[in-house]
Amino acid sequence: MAEGSSDDKVGARYSDVAKRYLVGGETLQWQGKPATVVIVGRGVILTALALVFMVCLWFWPEDLGALAIALVACVLMMVTDTRYGLIVGAVGIVIVLIVWALGTDGLLLWLVIFPLAYSLVYLLANVIYLGRVLFVITDRRIITRYGIFSLRYAELNIERIQNITVLQPWYERLLGYGDVFFATAGEQGGIDYQKPGIKLMSGGAVTWEDVSKPFEVVRKVNDITHSAGRATSDNRAASSGISDAEVRLRQLSDLSVKGLISQQEYQQKRDEILRKL
Question: Which residues make Cβ contacts (< 8 Å) with residue 218, sequence separation at least 6?
Answer without folding.
Answer: 164, 166, 180
